[in-house]
Design goal:
Oligomer: single chain
CATH class of the largest domain: Alpha Beta
Largest sheet: 4 strands, antiparallel
Shape: elongated
Helix content: over 70%
């Protein structure tokens, strides 16, 4: 800590010695500072006034018809269009239009001066956001207050009129192109439909079914159907053989046993009624109606059995079998199976004929199918393209109608440009402060430079550091009263001269406008 304090103290002593040495040239520094201050002030006040005019424009990108037409009409990217419009507003054609319309081009008499004028105009005009979405400020500054307002007004007119007209023309051009394309594809679609219809008429028997099956699919389906019919035929034939075998067995069994199946059925019924009669006699007497009815039914069945036995000798056993209900059902099944076999045989023959025809016309069918697929593919592609173009044309027409009715990028002037009454620049106060600081710095630097050119020893330590000779001591200067008064007057004069610099700065702030007009008038008169 002591070392740091000692170093700072040495630095302070060094600065103090250098300031005392440069103090000898204080008058020269003051005069130079005054010269710089006066020259800088004259230069600042000679700068012409700048008058800035501005307009505030709002870009309406959310028209009321946009939500209603979303999904129906084309929604242009108005925000991207807005960026393009704001970037191309300062293009050279627009700058030339503004310069000619406002009379700004009169200031240039040669092509080089005109190029410089347009370049300066493009650099001076500023288009920037106003802090709110889609709100822009257009500003321009010029030494002529009316010219600044005219330039801003010209740019606003270009922004509001020319861009909308260009958008409408571009929309009309796109719609005309779509109409031409729809007509061309309409003709192609008609030609494709005619070719497809003529081909289908000429090859009616070789065209696939509505399901779109190919030749190989049809052949495979026919062979599969033939296999299914053959399997059904084999199953029916096997069933017929089984039924025939059962019928022969039933006839042979009845003939060998000599038993009448009808007698067996009556005996079964008699046994059933006798069991019922036994059950009733356990609970009721002979006079009970159900008991009497059961006895009568048993008697009738016995009489029927006796009648059958009496007539059994004159009938053949084959007739008995034919009267059997089971045998009759077998005969019905036999007839049905025979009909099914004949039907299946006919279907199998037709299916074999169809397969033979398909195999015989294989080359013709495959060629027809390949050509049909090509014609159909061309027709589908043309029809799809035609439908898309027609849909886009309808969308474009609807979008153009919506654009003309307000669904477009519009600019609204929120604050129109006005003729400025007060200048916006230059900022003479700031420039005067900079001139004052520069003048003081130049004066101090000049005094220090003179000290370095003609140095002196201020303290004995400086003299001892300069050479190897020892310094024995120092003598003070005895100043006379007249010299003291002279020094006092000199110090007062220097302080008065130095204090006048900030006083001049304050007066320049106070009489900024008047001094500017006076200096500019003097320079203009001097030039004239």
């Amino acid at each position: 800590m002591q070392t740091d304090s000692f170093d700072l103290q040495e630095l302070f002593q060094y600065v103090l010695r250098e300031a005392r040495a440069a103090w000898r040239y204080r008058w020269r520094a003051l005069i130079l500072a005054w010269c710089v201050m006066v020259a800088g002030a004259l230069l600042v006040f000679s700068l012409p006034n700048k008058y800035e005019s501005s307009a505030q424009v709002y870009a309406d990108t959310d028209a009321l018809t946009n939500p209603l037409l979303r999904g129906v009409a084309m929604q242009p990217d108005v925000r991207a269009r807005l960026q393009v419009v704001t970037h191309t507003l300062l293009s050279r054609p627009n700058l030339e239009t503004v310069a000619d319309k406002t009379g700004l081009s009169v200031r240039a008499s040669t092509p080089a001066e005109r190029d410089e004028l347009l370049l300066k105009l493009g650099n001076t005009v500023r288009i920037k956001d106003a802090g709110t979405t889609n709100l822009y400020n257009i500003t321009y500054s010029d030494h002529d207050r009316e010219m600044s307002q005219k330039v801003v007004q010209a740019f606003v007119q270009i922004l509001m009129n020319d861009t909308v007209g260009a958008n409408t023309a571009a929309t009309a051009t796109a719609q005309k192109f779509l109409e031409q394309q729809v007509q061309d594809y309409g003709k192609r679609l008609s030609e494709a439909e005619t070719k497809l219809a003529d081909f289908q008429k000429a090859n009616l028997g070789y065209i696939p079914s509505q399901g779109g099956s190919t030749y190989f699919t049809r052949l495979q389906a026919a062979e599969t159907q033939l296999q299914n019919l053959q399997a059904q035929y084999d199953t029916a034939a096997a069933g017929r053989a089984t039924t025939q075998q059962q019928m022969r067995a039933m006839a042979m069994g009845s003939a060998s046993a000599g038993i009448d199946p009808r007698t067996q059925e009556i005996d079964s019924q008699i046994a059933t009624y006798q069991q019922k009669l036994s059950t009733l006699l356990l609970s009721y007497t002979e006079a009970y109606p159900d008991v009497a009815a059961t006895r009568r039914m048993i008697a009738q069945l016995k009489a029927q059995r006796a009648e059958l036995k009496k007539n059994a000798g004159g009938e053949s056993m084959m007739g008995v079998v034919s009267d059997n209900p089971v045998y009759q059902e077998m005969q019905k099944s036999m007839y049905t199976t025979q009909v099914n076999l004949q039907t299946l045989a006919t279907q199998i023959a037709l299916q074999k004929q169809q397969i033979a025809e398909l195999k015989g016309a294989a080359d013709k069918i495959t060629d027809v199918q390949a050509t049909l697929q090509q014609l159909t593919r061309n027709y589908d592609v043309t029809k799809k393209q035609y439908d898309q173009l027609l849909e886009r044309l309808n969308t474009a027409q609807l979008s153009q109608d919506a654009t003309q009715s307000g669904n477009n990028l519009k600019f609204r002037v929120i604050s129109p440009p006005l003729v400025p009454l007060l200048p916006s620049g230059p900022h003479r106060g700031l420039l005067l402060v900079l001139v004052f600081g520069f003048a003081v710095a130049v004066g101090l630097g000049f005094a220090y430079l003179l000290h370095k050119v003609t140095p002196v020893f201020v303290t004995p330590a400086d003299l001892q550091d300069f050479g190897d000779y020892p310094v024995l001591g120092s003598l003070g200067l005895i100043v006379s009263p007249s010299r003291r008064r002279e020094r006092r007057r000199e110090a007062i004069g220097f302080l008065a001269g130095a204090s006048m610099l900030p006083m001049i700065l304050l007066l320049a702030f106070a009489f900024d406008g008047n001094l500017a007009r006076l200096v500019q008038h003097f320079f203009v008169m001097g030039v004239a």
